[in-house]
Amino acid sequence: EKRTVTQIEKNGYPDSVYINAAKIFQGIHIEKSKDRNVVQYGDNSESPMMAFKDEHSRRVSYELAFNALKYQDLLEEILLDSKAYPCYSIPDELTSLLVVMLYDLQDRKFQKRKIFAEEELVAEVQEIGHYLYSYRTKLAAALARCRIKYDALSIEYFVPETIRKQEQRASALPLCFWINTLKISLEDVVRDLEMKGFTKVESVSDFDHYTYAVDQHCHDVLVFPSSLREELLNLDLFADYKLLLQ
């Protein structure tokens, strides 16, 4: 199951993730003034979210939505420059879906998304996905023009300075995980981590990559270096809800 999750992330996400990410983005996207409001986002506030399959689906839905928010200006410029927007067959209510799926498409280097046999397909996601992929060459060219125009080595250049500073601060903070004592004990977590090569240290000042510390005030909280985020989220302990990311 864990291998399947990793494969889905590499090749795209299930349709439900795009739908939920679009719904989240619709509620948080930046409203432009009327003289700048070229890309129109319809009002689909009444449409419900799909149920999150699990905590992993919830997390990636929010990550996708907030990544689209970070690069909203760039994504809108790519859509307009490539002439992929406006498209009269795509209503304004699906613009949020268009933007989130464009972010994911460029993140996959404009490679085709893989569809998995067990995935529940959503017609709108399939439609937008096929539409964007048909424009992939023009979209990639528009992104390249934007990078040349702003002398940007990567799209990270387009992140607003305030957000960039917040991310830099957040990325330096240690990761805290609660031990789900309904499922596992501290001793069993420690044993599992040691089998995977982790070493317990006294405090965060002693961190050296594969290390962790027990919180001094909450003994059911473990603290890890921020650099281990992706590796920790792929542990069985996390997948089985035995460790919960704070």
Please write out the topology.
Blueprint: H1 2-11, H2 15-28, H3 55-70, H4 72-81, H5 95-107, H6 123-134, H7 136-149, H8 161-172, E1 175-179, H9 186-195, E2 199-200, E3 211-214, E4 221-224, H10 229-233, H11 236-239, E5 243-245
Q: What's a quick, concise take on this entry?
A:
It comes from Acrocephalus arundinaceus (Great reed-warbler). With 246 residues, this protein is an alpha+beta fold.
Task: Kindly describe this structure.
The chain is an alpha+beta fold and 246 residues long. It has two domains: 15-163; 173-245, Alpha-Beta Plaits (2-Layer Sandwich), CATH 3.30.70. It contains eleven helices and five strands, in the order H-H-H-H-H-H-H-H-E-H-E-E-E-H-H-E. It has helices at residues 2-11, 15-28, 55-70, 72-81, 95-107, 123-134, 136-149, 161-172, 186-195, 229-233, 236-239, and strands at 175-179, 199-200, 211-214, 221-224, 243-245. Helix 3 crosses helix 5 and helix 5 (95-107) crosses helix 6 (123-134). The longest helix is centred in the N-terminal third of the chain and has 16 residues, at 55-70. It is elongated, with a radius of gyration of 21 Å. The model is unreliable at 1-8 (pLDDT under 50).
Measured between the Cα atoms of the first and last residue, the distance is 23 Å
Give me the Rg, rounded.
Answer: 21 Å
Oligomeric state, counting identical vs distinct chains: single chain
- What is the count of DSSP helices, taking H or I runs of 4+ residues? 11
DSSP strand count: 5
Q: For the residues shown, what is the average pLDDT?
A: 86
Strand order of the largest sheet: 2-3-4-1-5
Summing up helix and strand content along with how strands pair, one would put the structural category as alpha+beta
Indicate how many domains the architecture comprises: 2
Strand content: 5-15%
What can be said about the biggest beta sheet? 5 strands, mixed
Uncertain parts: 1-8
